[in-house]
């Protein structure tokens, strides 16, 4: 499995880039959002990757963070969501937006992606809602997009499993981490988690995240 790739961008297209790694060119498909974040032709970059193996084709997909890669893997597990649809969802919402939409049950946000109908969007939310907290708590560790080129490598990357610690205190800490990873200020995230925990003392991490997101959502 090719888990990470680093090299020089030789070519850019509307849905992929060609990355030269020590003389070997790798065609890597990316979402619009990821492509927009990449440097220009001739510059070095690095992406986490996922290899799709079919009988007649091998396709490599690239992501700037392990969180984005994990969402792609989960989205691809949903019936009716292929690689193209997954990249459309990630390109429209971004990995943080996907986690937020699923945690809140907002299938309309998922439906906003090109080619995603209401039934598919609802299926995504329903089937992944229990997995959203774990992925959101992973954080967003970006691949070094402007790699110096000194160490052009292709190496496997594994996503560490999230260990669930018992107790509401641990759930609050994990929920707070997930919310700050989504970009909320530590103060407002902590306040929302504390309020959610006060209203539901036995809530697990997922329940706290969903409740806190609702508290943090714009009113009106």
UniProtKB/TrEMBL annotation:
Main location: cytoplasm
One GO term describing the cellular component: cytoplasm
Name of one Pfam family that matches: RuvA_C
Holliday junction DNA helicase RuvA C-terminal domain segment(s): 171-217
Molecular function GO labels: ATP binding; four-way junction DNA binding; four-way junction helicase activity
Occurrences of domain DNA helicase Holliday junction RuvA type (ranges): 1-62
Localization: Cytoplasm
GO BP field: DNA recombination; DNA repair
Region (Domain I): 1-64
Transmembrane segments: none
Keyword vocabulary terms for this entry: Cytoplasm, DNA damage, DNA recombination, DNA repair, DNA-binding
Signal peptide start and end residues: none
Top-level lineage group: Bacteria
InterPro entries: DNA_helicase_Holl-junc_RuvA_I, NA-bd_OB-fold, RuvA, RuvA_2-like, RuvA_C, RuvA_C_sf
Renumbered residue ranges of the record's region Domain III: 169-220
Matches recorded under Gene3D superfamilies: 5' to 3' exonuclease, C-terminal subdomain, DNA helicase RuvA subunit, C-terminal domain, Nucleic acid-binding proteins
Subunit structure: Homotetramer. Forms an RuvA(8)-RuvB(12)-Holliday junction (HJ) complex. HJ DNA is sandwiched between 2 RuvA tetramers; dsDNA enters through RuvA and exits via RuvB. An RuvB hexamer assembles on each DNA strand where it exits the tetramer. Each RuvB hexamer is contacted by two RuvA subunits (via domain III) on 2 adjacent RuvB subunits; this complex drives branch migration. In the full resolvosome a probable DNA-RuvA(4)-RuvB(12)-RuvC(2) complex forms which resolves the HJ.
HAMAP family the UniProt entry points to: DNA_HJ_migration_RuvA
Role description: The RuvA-RuvB-RuvC complex processes Holliday junction (HJ) DNA during genetic recombination and DNA repair, while the RuvA-RuvB complex plays an important role in the rescue of blocked DNA replication forks via replication fork reversal (RFR). RuvA specifically binds to HJ cruciform DNA, conferring on it an open structure. The RuvB hexamer acts as an ATP-dependent pump, pulling dsDNA into and through the RuvAB complex. HJ branch migration allows RuvC to scan DNA until it finds its consensus sequence, where it cleaves and resolves the cruciform DNA.
Domain observations: Has three domains with a flexible linker between the domains II and III and assumes an 'L' shape. Domain III is highly mobile and contacts RuvB.
Family in the record: Belongs to the RuvA family.
Name listed for the protein in its UniProt record: Holliday junction branch migration complex subunit RuvA
Gene: ruvA
